[in-house]
Amino acid sequence: MNTKTSILALMVAATATTAAAEGELNLYSSRHYDTDERLYSDFTEATGITINRIEGKADELIERMKAEGANSPADILLTVDTSRLERAKDAGVLQSIESDVLEARVPAYMQDEDNQWFGFSQRARIIFFDKTDVTNPPKSYVDLADPAYAGKVCHRSSSNVYSQTLLASVIANHGEEAAKGWAKGVVDNFARDPQGGDTDQLRGLVSGECDISISNTYYFARAIRKDVDGLPADARANIGWVFPAQNAEGAHMNLSGGGVAANAPNKDNAIKFMEYLASDQAQQYFSAGNDEYPAVPGVGISPSVATLGMFKPDDLDATTIANNVPAAQKIFNEVGWK
Fold it and tell me: Does residue 20 surpass a pLDDT of 90?
């Protein structure tokens, strides 16, 4: 068999000779993207396994799994961001699994050290700026605290997981004291109080409320691929971007991933689904359908994502980032980052 044969093709071949894979899979997901429907339908078509979904916010799903205990029907939890995956692990709602496929395909820094969760897609958290007003944009996260950018920076609130994991990565790369000074400097440079989501930070550039903002790449790539309210093509033409810290640690990456539930009634099917998410077909769809970067090296990216260009990612271990989130929240409180 050609070594490039996808995991999905292998599953199709297996199900042609046996019905053993048929059954159900109960998926708890906080991924709110309509484009994920294709992931689910392709898996069912290939394996005969029916996916039953419960969707909600990550923290609510974790609490639900805790409350359900040993009687929980959940087989898999899918969610966004390292901190939430680690939160689920700490809550005891995930279990360690063994999978040669996942070990081989998902880079080690995107795996939980106990194999309780794995990353399946990535988003780079980068700097966007108004090219008409900023001729010398920040080249790194550290630069965002430079007084030269006073009154220019927009960012999300400190309660947002993207903010928390970014600061957690700054702590890991530069130390806690330096991270505190950085956070204070960014607060001093705010153009407005933290508010809204990533798309709102980009809209702030269009409206003129700010000249520099931080956003995950897939929000901007989505606006390239299709119409997004408040980000018309003529306005986007004035927005530039910088992949930070290219001469240092690289651009911070947010993960979307999942793990097998601690009391999964359909554990074998859950592992099959996790392995499917690491297949070439599913990995390509994370990019084509939701403008994300694949977790598996060598998988092609969509044109909208490719428009942003090549860059060096920060390959800081995801568990290390998650472990620094409590310290990040403490710093946010101390420096007055709302």
Answer: no
Give alpha helix (H) positions in the chain.
Answer: 7-17, 37-47, 58-68, 82-90, 100-105, 161-174, 176-188, 198-207, 217-225, 233-236, 267-277, 280-290, 303-306, 318-323, 325-335
- The structure's pTM equals 0.87
How far is Cα 216 from Cα 254, in angstroms, rounded to an integer?
8
- Say whether both 117 and 164 belong to one domain: no
Mark whether 43 and 58 lie in a shared domain: yes
Phi and psi at residue 100, to the nearest 5°: -65, -35
Q: How does residue 319 score in pLDDT terms, banded at 50, 70 and 90? A: confident
Claim to verify: residue 107 and residue 242 sit in the same structural domain: no
Q: Which domain holds residue 224?
A: 124-250+314-335
Query: In this predicted model, which residue has the larger pLDDT, 131 or 9?
Result: 131
pLDDT tens per residue across span 47-59: 999 999 999 999 9
Indicate which CATH number applies to the domain containing 39.
3.40.190.10
Q: How far apart are CA 210 and CA 206, in angstroms?
A: 8
85 CB-near residues (< 8 Å, 6+ apart) = 79, 112, 117, 119, 255, 257, 258, 259, 318, 322
Tokens of 293: 């970067």
Place of tokens 């409320």: 209
Q: Of 311, 324, 313, 318, which Cα lies nearest the Cα of 174?
A: 324
Query: What are phi and psi for residue 298, nearest 5 degrees?
Result: 90, -5
pLDDT band at 21 (very low <50, low <70, confident <90, very high): very low
